[in-house]
Amino acid sequence: MPTLVSLPAFEDNYIWVLHDGQHAVAVDPGDPAPLIAFLDAQRLVLTTVLITHHHRDHTGGNTLLRQRFNCEIYAPENPRIPATTHILRGGDAVDIAQPPLHFDVIATPGHTLDHISYAGHGNLFCGDTVFGCGCGKLFEGNPGMMAASLDRILTLPDATRVCCAHEYTLSNIDFARTIDGHNPALLERQAKDRDARAHGRPTLPSTLALEKLTNPFLRFHDVDMTAFAANYLNQPHPGPAEVFGAIRAAKDAWDG
Ligand code: ZN
Ligand code: FE
Question: Does this model's pTM top 0.85?
Answer without folding.
Answer: yes
